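#structure-requests
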Amino acid sequence: MPTVIAFVTVVSFWVRPPGLELVRHIAGWGVVSCAVSLLLGVALPAYGLMPTVSGDQSDKAIVGGTLLSGMFNHSNTLGAVAALTLPLVFLFRRRMTVFLSIIFTFCALIWSASRTSMIAAIAMAFAWFVVRLFRRSNRVSVAVVSFVLIASLLLVAITPFVTDDPTAFTSRGQIWIFSRGAFEAAPIFGNGVSFFQDIWAVNNGLFKDAQHAHNSFLTQLTTLGLVGGVGLFLLVFMCARVSLAYARIGDLRLSMYVVVWLVLSIGETVWRFNVTQPMWLFGTLPLIVLAASGVPRWIPSQAEDGQLRQARPRPSWYQRGAPLVSSDSVAHR
């Protein structure tokens, strides 16, 4: 049933795009999740912290030898939520809201000590910094963002297929090797969406607490085969195309989200087609909304009172709120 609901949601969004305003609301839910998780970690550590820290987890803990999981069942989930929320907080209207949101998401990310999530955030910050160095040349900015997107996409697709050491990437190699074998057994249509849950239920020793392939594309290939893998690739390509359209006029917020999504997908499964999973809200829904919105075909003219005035006809997804481009970026176009 959760998968059916997700499918109906995707179809309805594709028929009638909800507008990028929804992405701003998702960012708000992400900030609230991080804030509540921090509160649980401080006030109710029995509920907000990982119950046991042992093995490789003790080595990665940053804050007091503890890992914050907050309102989620694992610290890596909280880290992924924080990393995916971080580039979207810049969609908020008020600077103070943006500032406080950065504090909450950054603190949750650090306390979760999710290494893949922190690498994704660092990749986003690096790309943003390089683009800002050439902010008066949109061609250079687009080239830098395009390079980061392509490099991240290649790493997502290649890394799990060239890793043969079971202990590599904190034992993700073991899961990747097993998942590759399962994909090769059913390469066209996959093994079904519940494949990993079924394996986890009968062989918890292999997957520990993992119910996915720890790679977005490999999970998709294993469960839905080449049909699902190609579909996800096309969706990511559409999102990258839309985000680059905004990058051409100086707005990097959507492209930075795609960068985080791709880098995070190297070691985690961000694409979850199940409405009961946190990644459905923070990793799947924004991608669908972004792809469904399409490439903007309006011509920015000038900005007044923080609102971008657009040439008619306006696209159907346009909503009032924080403009998706700044007056400076329009002036420097």
